[in-house]
Amino acid sequence: MAIRFGGKYSPGGRPAAGGEAGAGMGRPAPGQARHPLESRTKWVTLMGAPLLLGAFFQGDPLGIATSLLGFGILAGGMWMTREGLQAEAAYDARRVARRPAIPRKLFGGILTGLGIAVGASEPGAFAGAAVLGFTGAVLHWLAFGPDPMRDKGMEGVDSFQQDRAARMIEEAETHLRGMTDAIQRIRDRKLQARVASFATSARALFERVEQNPGALASARRYLGVYLIGARDATVKFVDLYAQSPDAAAQRDYEALLADLETSFQALSQRLHDGVRTDMDIEIEVLRERLAREGVRPPASAALEDRSGEPTAAELLQAKERTR
């Protein structure tokens, strides 16, 4: 079956949601966030290949076992490190995030040092092997850095509400993944890009809810009912389109996606405006409290209309008259 190739600049292509300036700045899909140091784990694993290859040239079973075990532990440490780098990339890509539950890079460094020590161990030379293992663990920490150890953007956020929002967003990501997997079956780049554009708008709403878990009540239908309906509609459309391409069905499906995308974007904007309104109210209340305490804001704090206040010359004239 032929595949239609296209993109943002192709005829009929659609620009990225949020405009070109915001392309690539939104919430990434699960598994899409990449750390720039991920490739290092493959190179370190390849550097441990002499342990694997040299094991078969060992003269005694103990040497074979230690070489194979050392390479296995080293490879496991690199796998753990790669998982930690992916978790760190997802943490860095979000404005509000919890620290990883398991410090994978730390455990990866320990396993790396242990694998080097086991692979280099020989009877009567365990101290030297331990020194090599410790050195390998330190170099691992210098090469990959530590794990994120603090929550980000969680100040003043109710942890219970945040956990509820995280569960809802995780379920919503499952529905989006179902839509994406279904649309891949018809191998039409235009429709795939259309679904990807809707997914970008949906994830923008996810990010709003993540930043403000109190908005979960307003977004619950969007994260649940609407996404489930969109997923089911996508599956049925793909089943119909795979049997016999129907231009009318395709137009109806694209119109449905356009309506959903508009609704999601409108709700994201309302949540943003609501947060701005809450901030303005907090600022106004704080100013009133400062005024009651007799504290005047600095002149650079705001540009206020002072046309009704007397000037310095008028104050001097009034002072002369009182004399």
From TrEMBL:
- Keywords tagged on the record: Membrane, Transmembrane, Transmembrane helix
**Region ranges (Disordered):** 1-34, 296-323
Top-rank taxon of the source lineage equals: Bacteria
Q: In its UniProt entry, what is this protein called?
A: 5-bromo-4-chloroindolyl phosphate hydrolysis protein
Compositional bias, Gly residues, is annotated for 15-25
* Membrane spanning residue stretches: 63-81, 102-120, 126-144
Does the record bear Membrane in its keywords?
Answer: yes
